[in-house]
């Protein structure tokens, strides 16, 4: 796992951030999912291959972050399984990747139902089909929703559905192939009003990423909207957009406005230093060329040499001679 995956995974794993992402995407920013309702699940799943004699090898798949949700609706418990995939680069097979993850969880639910019935030995009054599948007529699946957060200032130019990945245009065929849409948060596509629907530091992180290539706009939104950032947010921004934000020793939070002003001042000082160095180098080259022209003129005048003879005598490189001849 790369450094970007590590820091974005640790950031999104926080219940406040995880809940905020789904509250934005599902409920338009309403605070329906509460952080304390979330329970972290194991992200590793085993895909057992089908086929005679167990053909193939079991394959282990890893989600970035997976949590279960228990909420109350009309006095009945409603359950959801929520997963987040963090992407710092476009994944051009994302629909298939997420479809596999979701299918694994549905298969696991079916298997767990079968295991529970087998343990309870409650086969009586159930048909042969229920017995063979282990999944009874009254059993229900828990919905699985996977959300992709794109930690990049770029547009997402990859497919957002399974059908987009297919080289088939015939609607009669596509109508028989179930489509799968990915759920995606892309900072570049978020309007400023949309960013305000986030209630955690996701607002600052996604806003910073969105405008990271436009320093003037970034400074503007930082002054208007930003709060202080903690180490978790700083790590994400430094890894994903090279923000170059730094916490001083002993500090727990960073004043982003001050940090940007410091960065702009440092950038201006660096530019001024580079300009001065370039000017010094240019002046030195001009002085050297002027001295060489004077020496060539002296040889041509005192020894009656041609320009070519004088340059040969002073071992002037061939590449420079035509330019010097024009100035003699």
Task: Work out the helix count.
Answer: 12
Low-confidence spans: pLDDT under 50, at least 5 residues?
50-55
Give the topology string: H per helix, E per strand. HHEEEEEHHEHEHHHEHEHHH
Task: Give me the secondary-structure category.
Answer: alpha/beta
* Average pLDDT: 84
Number of strands: 9
Distance between the termini: 64 Å
Number of domains: 2
With strands numbered from the N-terminus, the spatial order across the biggest sheet is 1-4-5-6-7
What does this molecule look like?
The chain has helices at residues 3-12, 15-27, 94-120, 128-133, 171-174, 192-195, 202-210, 215-225, 231-241, 256-302, 307-313, 318-327, and strands at residues 38-40, 44-47, 59-62, 65-73, 76-87, 144-150, 183-185, 229-230, 253-254. The protein is an alpha/beta fold. It has two domains: 3-254, no CATH class; 278-327. It has a five-stranded mixed beta sheet with strand order 1-4-5-6-7, with helices on both faces. Helix 7 packs antiparallel against helix 8, helix 7 runs parallel beside helix 9 (231-241) and helix 10 (256-302) packs across helix 11 (307-313). The two termini are 64 Å apart.
Strands, helices and their partners?
Elements: H1 3-12, H2 15-27, E1 38-40, E2 44-47, E3 59-62, E4 65-73, E5 76-87, H3 94-120, H4 128-133, E6 144-150, H5 171-174, E7 183-185, H6 192-195, H7 202-210, H8 215-225, E8 229-230, H9 231-241, E9 253-254, H10 256-302, H11 307-313, H12 318-327
Parallel strand pairs: 5-6, 6-7
Antiparallel strand pairs: 1-4, 2-3, 4-5, 8-9
Helix pairs in contact: 1-9, 7-8, 7-9, 10-11
């Amino acid at each position: 796992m790369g450094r970007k995956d590590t820091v974005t995974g640790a950031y999104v794993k926080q219940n406040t951030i995880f809940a905020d992402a789904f509250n934005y995407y599902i409920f338009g920013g309403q605070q329906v999912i509460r952080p304390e309702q979330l329970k972290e699940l194991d992200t590793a799943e085993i895909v057992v291959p089908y086929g005679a004699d167990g053909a193939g090898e079991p394959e282990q798949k890893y989600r970035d972050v997976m949590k279960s949700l228990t909420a109350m609706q009309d006095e009945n418990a409603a359950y959801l399984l929520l997963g987040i995939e963090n992407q710092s680069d476009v994944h051009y097979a994302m629909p298939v990747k997420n479809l596999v993850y979701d299918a694994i969880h549905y298969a696991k639910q079916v298997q767990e139902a079968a295991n529970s019935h087998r343990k309870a030995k409650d086969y009586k009054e159930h048909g042969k089909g229920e017995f063979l599948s282990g999944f009874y007529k009254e059993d229900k699946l828990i919905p699985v929703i996977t959300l992709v957060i794109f930690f990049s200032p770029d547009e997402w130019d990859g497919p957002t559905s399974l059908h987009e990945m297919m080289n088939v245009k015939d609607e009669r065929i596509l109508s028989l192939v179930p489509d799968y849409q990915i759920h995606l948060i892309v900072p570049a596509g978020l309007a400023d009003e949309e960013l305000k629907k986030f209630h955690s530091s996701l607002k600052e992180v996604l806003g910073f990423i969105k405008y990271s290539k436009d320093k003037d706009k970034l400074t503007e939104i930082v002054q208007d909207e930003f709060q202080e950032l903690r180490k978790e947010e700083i790590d994400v921004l430094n890894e994903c957009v090279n923000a170059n934000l730094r916490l001083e020793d002993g500090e727990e939070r960073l004043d982003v406005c001050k940090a940007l002003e410091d960065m702009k001042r440092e950038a201006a000082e660096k530019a001024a230093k580079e300009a001065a160095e370039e000017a010094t180098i240019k002046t030195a080259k001009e002085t050297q060329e002027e001295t060489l022209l004077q020496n060539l003129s002296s040889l041509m005048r005192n020894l009656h040499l041609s320009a070519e003879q004088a340059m040969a005598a002073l071992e002037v490189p061939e590449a420079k001679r035509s330019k010097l001849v024009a100035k003699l």
